[in-house]
Amino acid sequence: MKHLKKMLCGSLIAFGTLAQQASAATFVGDRTDFRDETIYFAMTTRFYDGDPNNNVYCWDGVLNVNDPEWRGDFAGLIKKLDYIKALGFTAVWITPIVENGSGLDYHGYHAMDFSKIDHRYVSKESTDADADVAFQTLIDEVHKRDMKLILDIVLQHTGNFGEAKLCRMFQKDYTQDLGDINASMIVVPQSEGGQLPEDYPAMKPGDQYATRLAMMKNSDFTNRDIHNYWHHKAWFDWDDPSRWWGQIAGDCVDLNTEHPAVAEYLVECYSRFIKMGVDGFRIDTAGHIPRLSFNNNFLPQLMEAANSAEAKAKRGDTPFFMYGEVCARSMEVIYRGENYNCSPCYYTWKESKNYPWDYDPTSWDSVVAIPTPTEGSHDYFTVQGHTNWESVLQSGIDDLGHADAILRKSDNALLNGNEYHTPDYSDYSGMSVIDFAMHWNFKSASGAFGVHGQDNLYNDATYNVVYVDSHDYAPDSNYRFEGTQDTWAENLSLMFTFRGIPCLYYGSEVEFQKGKPIDKGAVEALKDTGRAYFGGYIEGDLTVTDFAEYSSATGNIASTLTYPLARHIQRLNKIRAAVPALRKGQYSTDGCSGSMSFKRRYVDDNTDSYVLVTISGSSTFTGILNGTYVDAITGDTKTVTDGTLTATCSGKGNLRVYVLNTSKTPAPGKVGEDGKYLYGTASVDQPWTEWPDETMPEETWTVKPSGGGSGGTVEEPEEPIEPAIEDGEQAIFFENTSDWGGYIYAWIWNDDGNYTGGNWPGQVLTYLGNKIWKWTYTGTETIPDDAVIIFSNGSDQVPGRDQGGFDFVNGGYYTQDGYLKTIEPETTSPRVSMSPNGGDFIESVTVTLKANSVTTSATYKVGNASEVSFTGTTTVTIGEDMEVGESVTISWTATDGTATTNGKATFTKVEKPAGITIYADNSEVQWSPLKIHHFDVDASTWPGVDMLKVAENIYTYTVPDGTRGVVFNNGQGNGSNQTEDYTNLTNNHLYLIKPNGSNKATVEDKGVYGGASIDDLYVNDLYAGIEISLVPGGILVSASVDGMVHISTISGQTRSIAVTPGQTLIDGLEGFYIVNGQKLFVK
C-alpha cells in the first residue's frame, strides 16, 4: 500500500501560502499505524444489497416482512466502498463472516463453523472456495482504494448449535431454504460421527435446546464435554471475574478460552484471514475472556501470524491492529468504580506477575467439570482442577477492586509540557480497546471529554477506538443516539480532534433511525430498530478522487453525502488527515482555558506537528510554543512571541484548530469549506435536498419461509443486560422460568385503572437476555401500593385467570411463581438528574432537579445567580424574563460527604411555533404516557413527544404547519398500543382515541374543542341522565331518560344496550370494562 503525503517545501513556504486551502483529505505525514485511520462500521447484512439473488430470511425473524435479515453482502460492500471513502473514512469495520447458525444470525456472532465463510454473504450456489474468493476480492477492493479492512471476530463463544470441529451437531445445507431450520440444518447424529442423539429430531424444541446445551456445558450434570472445550459454569456476575467463564446468553455458549487446543483452533481459523490481508481485528466480548488468556493464548499467536511475511505483504507492510470490546456500561474508567479487572483499561496491559500456564492440550482430558444444581454467581472461587483455571482465578483475585497498588499507569498519551516523548510500549498487551467510558458519556461532548482525567490507566489512550453509538448501545442507552443534530456535530468535533481513533456506526451521518431501539431481537421488526437496512439511502452513483473528495453524485447518495452531518464528517476527516498531531499526538490541557480545549503534538524523524484545539467556545492557550499558527477552520494566521494565543470561537460543535508551522510539518492552512457547524463568523447553510427516491425500500422478491422453528430459544441480545434500576425509576423484572414462547406482557392495575395503558394483555416488556424481561413505567405519578400485576404471553398467564394478581413491588423481580426479590437502585455516586435536561422551550419551563439517594447535599445555580441548596427534589421555573434566542445554563453539584460530582444543562428560549393545535381524548384507552408522533414536515422521532395534559383525560400539542398526519401512542407502539395514521387534521379539534381490540386504535374527530373538561363535552351530552354504579358481578344502570349503555371489553369487543327510565342490572361481568366512557373493574 502506498503512503499518502502532502508534498510541501518545509520552511521555504511563504506566509501567504499558509492560508491556502489543503486539497481533499490529502494526508500530511505517513500512515504509520492505525491512529492514522478513521473507521466506518458497517453491519454487512444491513448495509447494502449488492446481489439481490442471495437474500435470505432467518427462521426466528417472524416480524421481518419484505425485509430479509440477510440482505447486504460482500458485493454490496464493494459497490459502496467509494461512498465510505467519499465520507472521508479510511477503514471499514465489518461484522463476523464465519458460518453462523441460530434463529437470528444475520449479525454473524453465532458461529457454528469457525473454519469457513458463511455462503450467505456470496450465494446459495457458492462452494467454500467461492466464498474465500469473494472475501479475498473484498479485501483487494478495499486495498485498491488505499483503505483498510477490520474484521470483527469472536473468540469467547459459539452459537448453541455446536461447532463443526469442537462439537459437531449439524451440517448446513445451502441448497435448501436457509430460513427453514428443518430444511437447512441437517442433524448429524452420533451414528454418523456427530454429537446429537438419534431421537433428537423427535424432541420438543425446549428439549432440543437443552440437549444441545448439555453437549457443550454438561448442563445435565453428565460429563459430555469430555475435552472441556467449553466452560461449564451456570452462573456469573457482570461485575466480577466470574464473567470470564459464565454463559452470557442462550445463543452465546462460552468457550474454554484457557484451553490451548481451543485457542490454537481459533487462531488457526482467524490467521487465515490475516494472511488474506485483513488489516485488523475487532474482538467481540473481550471482557468475558480473562486477560491472562489473551496474554498467554491469543495475542502472541495472532501477532505471530500478522508478522508473517505473507500477511505483511498483503497489508502493504503496515502494522496489524487489534482492539477489544470490553463492555462496561459505566461512565467511569474503572468499571462502575469497582473492579479494575472488569475495566477496558485493564486489557491494554501485559501481566504484572508470572502465573503458571499449561500449554499441553491433552492435560484437559483428565478434568471433570460438572456444574452443581445449586451453584451461585460467586462460585467462581471454586474453579479448580487445571493449572490454567487456577492461574486465571488467582489473577482475578490479585487484581480485584481498584486499590492504587494494582492500577497500572502510563504517560504514553500525555505531553510533558509541550514536549513529545517516545512512548514506552514494553508493557502493552498488544490489544487496544473500545473506549466505553467516553461512549457511555457521549450524551454530550463535555461529558465524554470529562473522562480524560484517567487516561493514564490505559497503556496508551491515543489508540482507544471512540464512538458515540453502535450496533449494541448508545450513550447510557439502548436507543440510537437521540440527541439534537448540533449535539451530534459537537460529539464528532471532539472525536476527530481529541485522542483516540474515531469510529462511526453506519447511517449516523444522516441520523439514521434516530431514537429507535438498537436491537430488540425477535420482538421488533429490524426496520424499526437501529439495525434497519440502510441501502436505500446510498442508491446512486458517484466518482471519488480522494478521501472526502468526490463528484457526479446522483440519486439518494447525493442527498446523503450533502446532509449537514455528512458534510461535517467529510471536513473533519480532511482536517484530521492534514494534521498528524490530531491523529497520533500526545495531548495536554495545561494552560488551556476553554471548557473543551487542549494541545497536541506528534514527533518522528520526518514530522513535528503541534496543534491547539478549542471546541464550542473560545480559549486562551498559555505556555505554548512560539511561532506562526494557522487555523485549519478559518485560515486565520497568528504569530506568537510570548507563549500565549487566544482562539475566538462560538457555536455548538464549531472548532478552532491552530496548527504551528514547523520546518518538518508546515501548517496546511484552511482545510475544507465552511458549513453549518464549522465556520468563521457565521454558520453557512450548504445546499441539501430531500432524498428523491425511497430511503427504506421493501424487498418483495425473496419468499419468506413458512416452515421451521426456533430450536427452542428466543433470540438473545449480543450482550445481555443485567437487571438494574435507577434512582426514581419505577420498574419490575420477570424471569421466564417456565420458558413461555413469544413476548412477555405486563398488566398492572388497581381499582382506579391500569398503569400499562391500552388493552389487555398490556405492555410488552423489554428483553434483557437470559430469560429476564423488564418493564419500566413511563408515567409521572407513583404507582400505589395496592396495584397488582399479571404477567402473560398473550395466552398463558400468572397468576391464573380469576386469581387476581401479584402485589406490585417497585424493583420487584418475579418468576411464574410470584415475587422473588427486589432489585435495589444503583447508587454508586452522588448525582442530580434534571428533567428536562436542557434544550429549547417556549415562554417558560419548569425544571425538576432530583438528587439520588446517596447524595447528602446538593446545590443548583441558574446562570450567574447565587447557588441554591436543596435535598431530595426541587423545581425551578426559568424563562419568563428571558428574550427569545437567549440561553441560560443550570449547573448543579452533589456530594455524599466524600465524593462530589457536578453537571449542567443549557436551556434556550425559542419562538412559539406556528402550527396546528390538536387535542386528544385519552378517556377510553387510558394510555400513560400519551405521546404524539407527527410526520412529513419536521417529523418527530418515533414514538414522538409527550402531549400536555390540559384537563382530565384531555391533552394537547401543536404540530408544525404542513404536518401530514399523526400517530397517537403510549410509547410502546405496535398493535393496540398506537393508533392508525390519522391525516385529517383540523386546528383546535378534539380527537377521541378508541380501542380496537388487538388492532391499532382508531381516531374519531369530535369537533372544535372549547377548553372545557371532558365532563362538559360530548360524554355528558351523550350519557346525560344515566348513572352507572358497581354491584357484585355486574353494573347497575340508573336512568332518568331513555338512553344507551355502551360496554367495551379490554380486548375491544363492544356491546350497546338500550335502557329506559328506572334501574337496569347488567350482570355476568368480571374484570375491566369501559362503560359509557368510564373505566370500571367489576369483581
From TrEMBL:
Q: Which organism is it from?
A: Candidatus Amulumruptor caecigallinarius
Phylogenetic placement of the source organism: Bacteria, Pseudomonadati, Bacteroidota, Bacteroidia, Bacteroidales
Its cofactor is: Ca(2+)
What's the protein name?
Answer: Starch-binding protein
Keyword Cell membrane present in the record's keywords: the answer is no
Q: Which InterPro entries match?
A: CBM26, GH, GH13_cat_dom, Ig-like_fold
- GO MF annotation terms: metal ion binding
* Signal peptide positions on this chain: 1-24
The chain positions of domain Glycosyl hydrolase family 13 catalytic read 41-576
SMART domains under this entry?
A: Aamy
